[in-house]
Write a structure and sequence with these properties.
The structure is a single chain. This protein has a single domain, classed as Four Helix Bundle (Hemerythrin (Met), subunit A) (Up-down Bundle). Helix 2 runs antiparallel to helix 3 and helix 3 packs antiparallel against helix 4. It contains 6 helices and no strands. The protein is an all-alpha fold. It comes from Agaribacter flavus. Keywords: Bacterial flagellum biogenesis, Cell projection, Chaperone, Cilium, Cytoplasm, Flagellum. Pfam families: FliS. This is Flagellar secretion chaperone FliS.
Length: about 140
């Protein structure tokens, strides 16, 4: 199978997963996407491919901006406000990286964000359904 066919299949598969995902799953997909882009950025840095590193960091930053901007601070209160601040910090770390501190900043963001994603994965199904129902009301 050609690389072009594999890529087309993967894109179709992703579109299907997005179309059938609930809000919790969509957020989880974004979170995983951010971590994936940061891992790709580290690989690009190791290969000394600065252009690719910048592209992957930019994509991860865009995901963090989206996650930050969709926080509901009215419902989430202090927790959502703290998470908003953490997203701001991570975004700043990624925006300000340069050749000397790139890996350190990327690693710090991964270290800060991984537990957030893991906690999101651990939310019980009944709590997800309750939150979704409350948002619909």
């Amino acid at each position: 199978m050609s690389l072009k066919a594999i890529n087309a299949y993967q894109k179709d598969s992703l579109k299907q997963r997005i179309a059938s995902a609930d809000p919790h799953q969509l957020t989880l997909m974004l979170m995983q996407g951010a971590l994936d882009r940061l891992a790709y950025a580290k690989g690009a840095h190791d290969r000394n491919d600065i252009a690719a590193r910048a592209q992957f960091v930019s994509k991860a930053t865009a995901i963090f901006i989206n996650l930050r901007d969709t926080l509901d601070t009215n419902t989430g209160g202090e927790f959502a406000e703290n998470l908003h601040g953490l997203y701001d910090y991570m975004i700043d770390k990624l925006i300000t990286l340069n050749q000397d501190n790139a890996i350190a900043n990327i690693n710090e963001v991964i270290q800060l964000f991984s537990p957030i994603k893991e906690a999101w994965q651990q939310i019980p199904e009944q709590d997800k359904q309750l939150a979704y129902a409350q948002r619909q009301a």
